[in-house]
């Protein structure tokens, strides 16, 4: 069952599979802001102070990062896909799963800052204990290639960050964005005490997030990087759209194509997928 709803005053669609699993995706940014596996509880974090609207990025859920990651280029931080209205393309029920497809095309506003013809498509599939999100990018230029970065910036809900443990990154090379140093992960599982921002490279194995509310498996295809981020208490206190203590209630584990931008020739399509299992 797929029904229209509203989130933060913006249009959204609620997907419900035959076994009762639910996901809610906003048209603003094509952002999944809720995922409740069948018979389970909310898995994603959405800030109670989150805002939405033209030019505003929603704090929480799974923002779509495209065509630039963070400030690694001339565009606004994390590009423009997360703060623009997408088009609801279709919704279907298939084999018990609920499936929604959203689309973003180039227009005069995107062309003014990133002069390329493109189509971005996000497909959300929810069923049972699983959520799959696939991002596809097509180059619609007739004669020009383009490069881009992309990521799915998942905010996961945790009971208390200090008790959460992340498994699966042992020996992975990462760049610590706070210190600028490149290191290798020496601990598994990983625990958290405050602000962290690391980009892990060439991660192929699934990750497992252990929390008091249950364990989650995080896997991806086509996204070689993993980003682990939490603002910590000082940065959280400076964020107007995040309660001061909510750094304890979230952990971002992003999947992305960041270090080596994706290059698309005219007419080519790229796709990558995030798969979550509660």
Fold and architecture overview:
There is one protein chain. Helix content is 4%, strand content 47%. The chain is mainly beta. It is built from two helices and 20 strands. It has a single domain (2-160, 212-277), classed as Beta-galactosidase, Chain A, domain 5 (Distorted Sandwich). The strands form three sheets. Strands 5, 10, 11, 13, 14, 15, 18 and 19 form an eight-stranded antiparallel beta sheet that branches. Strand 3 (22-26) and strand 4 (31-36) form a beta hairpin. The mean pLDDT is 97.
Short description:
The chain is mostly beta strands. Helix content is 4%, strand content 47%. Strands 5, 10, 11, 13, 14, 15, 18 and 19 form an 8-stranded antiparallel beta sheet that branches. The chain has an 8-stranded antiparallel beta sheet with strand order 6-7-8-9-20-17-16-12, with no helix packed on it. Strands 1-2-3-4 form a 4-stranded antiparallel beta sheet, with no helix packed on it.
Write the SSE topology.
Layout: E1 2-7, E2 10-16, E3 22-26, E4 31-36, E5 64-65, E6 87-94, E7 97-105, H1 108-113, E8 118-127, E9 130-139, E10 146-152, E11 155-157, E12 165-167, E13 173-176, E14 182-184, E15 196-200, E16 207-211, E17 214-221, E18 225-230, H2 232-237, E19 250-264, E20 269-277
Antiparallel strand pairs: 1-2, 2-3, 3-4, 5-10, 6-7, 7-8, 8-9, 9-20, 10-19, 11-19, 12-16, 13-14, 13-15, 15-18, 16-17, 17-20, 18-19
């Amino acid at each position: 069952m797929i029904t229209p709803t509203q989130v933060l005053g913006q249009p959204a669609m609620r997907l419900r599979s035959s076994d009762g699993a639910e996901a809610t995706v906003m048209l603003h940014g094509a952002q999944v802001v809720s995922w409740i596996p069948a018979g389970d509880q909310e898995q994603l974090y959405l800030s109670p102070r989150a805002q939405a609207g033209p030019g505003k990025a929603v704090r929480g859920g799974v923002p779509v990062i495209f065509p630039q990651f963070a400030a690694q280029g001339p565009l606004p931080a994390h590009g423009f896909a997360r703060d623009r209205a997408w088009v609801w393309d279709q919704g279907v029920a298939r084999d018990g799963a609920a499936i929604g497809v959203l689309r973003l095309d180039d227009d005069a506003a995107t062309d003014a800052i990133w002069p390329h013809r493109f189509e971005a498509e996000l497909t959300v599939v929810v069923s049972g204990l699983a959520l799959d999100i696939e991002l596809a990018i097509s180059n619609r230029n007739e004669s020009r290639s383009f490069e881009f970065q992309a990521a799915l910036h998942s905010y996961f809900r945790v009971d208390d960050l200090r008790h959460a443990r992340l498994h699966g990154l042992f020996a992975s090379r990462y760049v610590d964005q706070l210190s600028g140093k490149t290191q290798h992960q020496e601990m598994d599982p990983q625990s958290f005490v405050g602000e962290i921002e690391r980009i892990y490279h060439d991660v192929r194995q699934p990750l497992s997030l252990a929390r008091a509310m249950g364990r989650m498996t995080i896997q991806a295809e086509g996204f070689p990087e993993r980003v682990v981020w939490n603002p910590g208490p000082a940065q959280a206190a400076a964020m107007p759209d995040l309660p001061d203590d909510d750094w304890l209630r979230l952990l971002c584990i992003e999947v992305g194509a960041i270090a080596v931008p994706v290059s698309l020739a005219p007419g080519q399509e790229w796709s990558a997928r995030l798969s979550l299992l509660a």
